[in-house]
Specification:
The complex is a heterodimer of chains A (about 160) and B (about 400).
Chain A (H helix, E strand, L loop, with lengths): L2 H12 L5 H8 L3 H13 L20 E9 L8 H8 L4 E6 L6 E7 L2 H12 L5 E8 L5 E2 L2 E2 L14
Antiparallel strand pairs in A: 1-3, 1-4, 2-3, 5-6
Helix pairs in contact in A: 1-3, 2-3
Chain B lengths: L7 H4 L6 H8 L6 E2 L11 H12 L12 H15 L9 E4 L1 H13 L5 E6 L4 H8 L3 E6 L10 H7 L4 E6 L12 H13 L3 E5 L25 E6 L12 E4 L2 H14 L5 H17 L2 H23 L12 E2 L10 H12 L1 E2 L1 E2 L11 E4 L4 H21 L1
Helix pairs in contact in B: 3-10, 4-10, 5-6, 5-9, 11-13
Chain lengths: ~160, ~400
C-alpha cells in the first residue's frame, strides 16, 4: 500500500459519493490517475464494495438482529477457516469474525422474524459438527455503526459568521 | 443619553462589520456558511477527556497567573521542536485566554498614547481595535494578491514614521491564507531592526500550511528575539476554539510587563482548558501530532477543491498556502465586496465575508472559509457559480 493509495482510501472512507473529478481535485491528482488507483484497489480486493450506512429503523424495514458467540473445534490443517467458510455461506450471516477470548467466532445475523432467527441458530448453526456451543444476544438498539452516530442532528454548532 | 459616560477611545472603534452578516444569516434556515473562522472538527477525544478528568478530580482552583507549569513546559518544548524557538517556561512564557487576550495585553504593555502600530492589511479585525483601546494609532500597510498578500519591505518602510513602535505580523494570514517565505521574513526583520520596531507575531495558524510550506517565526531571525513576541494558541490547529486557550512568549522583561496586566485583569486562564491544552501538546509530542496532521490533510483536500471550483467558475483566486481561508477577487463583477456578499446571502443563501471587513485593502475580495463539510462546500460552489452567471447576464 503506497501513500497515494492510502490517501485515496482515506477519502473514500470519509465519503465515497464525491464525484470523481472533485475527488481528484481534493487529492491534487489527475482524474484518470485517480480512476486507475481506485480500479487497482478494487481489482486487488482492497475495496470490496460501496454501501450506505442505513438506519433501518427509519426505513421501516424491521429486521431482528443478533450477535452470536460461537465456540468451535478447529479442524486439523484448516484451523477455523473451514468452519468460517461454512458459516459464511448462510444468507442470514451479515458479519463473521474470529475472536480472541472466551469464544472463537462472533457472528452478526439478521432475519425478518424472531422465529426465523431462532431456526437459524437451532437448525443450521448449532447442528454443525464443529460447533460446540452458542450464546445469542439480540440487538435492541443501534447507536453507532462504522463510526456513524445514529440520531445525531445534522447541525453545525458553530457561529454562522466569526472573525 | 448614557453615551456620555463611554470612554471616547472605545467609541472611536467602529463595531465589527462582520456582525451584520451574522444577524441576517442567522434568520435563514438553508443558508450555507463559508463565513466561519474556526475548525469544523470537534476537539480530539483524548483532549476533551483530559478536561473531564481534571473536573472529576476536583481541580477547580485558580492556577498561577502564568499558567500551570507542565503546560508552560510543553509549550516551550513544542516551540523548540516545531519552530526552533527557545523560551524559558518559567520566565518567558505566559498562558492567556486565547491568542486574543495576548494581543490585547501586548498592545497595552507596548503601546503608549500617540504611538503608531503598523498592521499589514487585510487583517484579522482585532489588531487595530486593540491598538486603539491602548491609545495607539493603527497604520495599515497594504498587501496585494499579486504579491501573495506578503508584506513587502518597501510598503512597510513607506508607512514608518518617527511614531512607529509596533509591527503586527500575522502569517499564515486570516483572511487571505497568505504566508511569508523565510527570505521575505528576513527582509522584514532587517527593517524592524533598523527602525527599532517591536514585532507582535501572531502565529495561530502556523501549523496549518500546505504544499510542503512551513511557516517560520520571525523571532528566529538575527536581532529579532529581543524585539518579538510570539503569540499563538490551541484554537485553530488543535480545534479548541471554545477552550479559549492561548499563550505568548517573549524576552523576560516583556513577559513580566504583560504578566502585570494579565494578573490584575484575568488572574489566570481556565484550569480545565490548561489541562486539555497540556494534553494536546503532550500527546502531539508522543504521536507526531497525528491529530493535527489528520485535520491539516482534510483542510488541504478542501482547499484544493475550493480553488479548482473557483477556477472552473471563473473566479480569480490567489492560491493560499496557509490557514483555512480563500480570498477570491470579485472585482470583475463590478460589485463592492459588501454588495456581492449581501446579494449572495439574500438571493442564494451562501454566507461569505466581504473583504472590506478586514480593512480597505480587502475590498474587491471575499473571504471563504473551507472548514466546512464537502457536500456543503460543493452545494455552496454551485450556488456561487449560479450567482456569477446571473451577474453576467445582468451586465
Amino acid at each position: 500500500m503506497n501513500g497515494e493509495q492510502r490517501r485515496v482510501l482515506d477519502l473514500l472512507n470519509e465519503d465515497c459519493r464525491i464525484p470523481l473529478e472533485k475527488m481528484a481535485s481534493m487529492l491534487g491528482m489527475d482524474t484518470r490517475e485517480l480512476a486507475g488507483i481506485i480500479d487497482g484497489l478494487e481489482r486487488e480486493r482492497v475495496i470490496l464494495c460501496y454501501r450506505p450506512v442505513v438506519n433501518w429503523d427509519k426505513a421501516e424495514r424491521n429486521l431482528v438482529e443478533a450477535m452470536i458467540e460461537v465456540k468451535v473445534t478447529p479442524q486439523r490443517d484448516f484451523g477455523f477457516d473451514a468452519v468460517a467458510k461454512r458459516i459464511n455461506s448462510f444468507e442470514e450471516v451479515r458479519s463473521l469474525y474470529l475472536m480472541s477470548g472466551a469464544y472463537d467466532l462472533l457472528i452478526q445475523v439478521a432475519a425478518p422474524t424472531l422465529k426465523e432467527l431462532a431456526q437459524f441458530v437451532s437448525e443450521r448453526l448449532s447442528p454443525l459438527e464443529t460447533v460446540t456451543g452458542t450464546s445469542t444476544s439480540f440487538v435492541l438498539k443501534r447507536y453507532k455503526q462504522d463510526g456513524v452516530v445514529f440520531d445525531q442532528p445534522d447541525a453545525d454548532g458553530r457561529l454562522t459568521v466569526s472573525p | 443619553m448614557s453615551e456620555r459616560f463611554i470612554n471616547p477611545a472605545v467609541s472611536a472603534v467602529p463595531p465589527s462589520a462582520i456582525r451584520r452578516f451574522f444577524d441576517v444569516a442567522g434568520t435563514m434556515k438553508n443558508a450555507i456558511s463559508l463565513g466561519v473562522g474556526e475548525p469544523d472538527f470537534v476537539t480530539p477525544f483524548k483532549v476533551r477527556n483530559s478536561a473531564i478528568d481534571s473536573l472529576l478530580d476536583g481541580e477547580t482552583s485558580y492556577t498561577t497567573n502564568a499558567g500551570i507549569q507542565p503546560l508552560r513546559e510543553e509549550i516551550a518544548l513544542y516551540l523548540k521542536e516545531r519552530f526552533g524557538l527557545s523560551y524559558s517556561p518559567h520566565t518567558e512564557t505566559l498562558v492567556t485566554v486565547g491568542a486574543s487576550e495576548a494581543i490585547d495585553i501586548a498592545m497595552r504593555a507596548l503601546v503608549s498614547p500617540g504611538d503608531e502600530v503598523l498592521i499589514p492589511e487585510p487583517c484579522y479585525i482585532s489588531y487595530g481595535a486593540c491598538a486603539m483601546f491602548a491609545g495607539g494609532t493603527p497604520v495599515y500597510v497594504p498587501t496585494r494578491a499579486e504579491t501573495g498578500f506578503e508584506l513587502t519591505p518597501e510598503d512597510l518602510e513607506r508607512c514608518i514614521t518617527k511614531k512607529s513602535r509596533v509591527l503586527v505580523l500575522s502569517y499564515p494570514n486570516n483572511p487571505t491564507g497568505g504566508v511569508m517565505p523565510p527570505e521575505k521574513l528576513a527582509a522584514i526583520a532587517e527593517v524592524a531592526v533598523r527602525h527599532d520596531l517591536f514585532v507582535l507575531s501572531d502565529e495561530i495558524y502556523a501549523e496549518l500550511c500546505y504544499d510542503g510550506f512551513r511557516q517560520q517565526s520571525i523571532a528566529g531571525f538575527p536581532g529579532m528575539r529581543e524585539r518579538t513576541m510570539v503569540i499563538s494558541g490551541f484554537s485553530k490547529a488543535f480545534a479548541m476554539t471554545g477552550f479559549r486557550l492561548g499563550y505568548l512568549c517573549a524576552d523576560e522583561p516583556i513577559v513580566a510587563a504583560v504578566s502585570r496586566i494579565h494578573q490584575y485583569t484575568i488572574m489566570c486562564a481556565s484550569r480545565q482548558s490548561q489541562v486539555a491544552s497540556w494534553s494536546a501538546l503532550r500527546q502531539g509530542r508522543e504521536n507526531g501530532y497525528a491529530e493535527v496532521v489528520r485535520m491539516r490533510e482534510s483542510y488541504d483536500r478542501r482547499r484544493r477543491l475550493t480553488l479548482d471550483s473557483f477556477r472552473d467558475m471563473g473566479l480569480p483566486c490567489f492560491e493560499p498556502r496557509g490557514a483555512f481561508y480563500t480570498f477570491p477577487s470579485i472585482r470583475h463583477t463590478g460589485l463592492s465586496s459588501e454588495a456581492f456578499c449581501d446579494r449572495l446571502l439574500t438571493e442564494y443563501h451562501v454566507v461569505c465575508v466581504p473583504g472590506s471587513a478586514f480593512g480597505s485593502s480587502g475590498e474587491g475580495h471575499i473571504r471563504c472559509c473551507y472548514a466546512t463539510a464537502v457536500d456543503k462546500l460543493m452545494e455552496a460552489f454551485e450556488r456561487i457559480g449560479a450567482f456569477l452567471e446571473k451577474l453576467k447576464q445582468e451586465k
